[in-house]
Design a protein that fits this description.
alpha/beta, TIM Barrel, 11 helices, binds pyridoxal-5'-phosphate, isomerase, Ala_racemase_C, Ala_racemase, pyridoxal phosphate, Alanine racemase
Length: 362
Amino acid sequence: MARPITATIHADALRHNLAALRDRAPGRRLMAMVKADGYGHGLETAARALGAADAFGVAAIEDAARIRAVGLEQPILVLSGFDNPDDLEQLRALRAEAIVHHAAQLDLLEQTDGAPIRVWLKIDSGMHRLGFAPEQVRDAYARLRAARGVDGEIVLMTHFASSDEFDAHSPNGRQTPAQLRAFAAATEGLDGPRSLANSAAVLGWPQACGDWIRPGGALYGMSVVSGRSGATFGLRPAMTFETRLLAVNRVAKGERIGYSAAWEAPEDMAIGVAAVGYGDGYPRLAPAGTPVLVNGRTASVIGRVSMDLMTIDLRGQADARAGDPVVLWGDALPVETVAEAAGTISYALTCGITRRVRFVNA
Ligand SMILES: *Cc1c(COP(=O)(O)O)cnc(C)c1O
């Protein structure tokens, strides 16, 4: 038999979320982040549904080519930038823009004789991943202004480390205001649009929106704010991850189920065996008790999640039969809930869906 597992992508939810984020940041331009294959939803599907965005953000040049191939004409920002003349040539050919985050890129832009490209200057305001340190910003900016490889205005950007913590008095909550101050000081008096906010900043730090917002997860209906699903912000899940029961079995009290005999039946009971496992991207570390929906009603994972299968507690679901639908996450079961149970974040789950899962556009 064919595996009954599907990931259904809801274009209407993507469009709804885009509009909802625009409402939260009126007058700002919106770059839709579609890196990691549109957070696992499919790059082309996501980019088409988000076609009303002002720009797209991708991790690599190949992704920019895929967006151009579906006929979208917006600016595309390549987050990883470039590190050789051939990359610059590809950026020009795709009319893509690039992040500049280290000094060797300034040298390349000064030395190139090809047509100039548009750049975003990345400033490390405290996350300490990519970007120029505040004291290097003025020099980098001046070199970009003078470089023959640079076209037009330079966008000044930074990225937040802890914007999902909204309480400005908690230890992590202090980091966003500190990053805002560091960014403002480093860029004071420099011309150009500002871009700071990821999804969580758009949702929780409206003062940090700048000229260009850069939401990713929220466009797909997901939140990384602890204890709050995207739905609590008026967002709709863009993915339903669903399979079917392959079998319904009875086990006796005391029988142990699955690998390592990790779960013991506390009474005579029915268990469901669903066609999904870590080979599909369902988290192996989802513990007993993680919710799933069988026929739309909440049930829970029991035993170890295996490669192709998982087992489900069907007490209270006497009518469940082989072939019945099992939702792993979607509208009525936020992926954030599953992620929290499995000790991960929603983005990692949608990005982790594997190639054998059939994608359906709805
Ligand atoms: C991924 C990313 C974003 C979007 O982050 P979300 O939490 O998904 O909104 C914004 N900016 C940069 C530079 C990123 O890498």
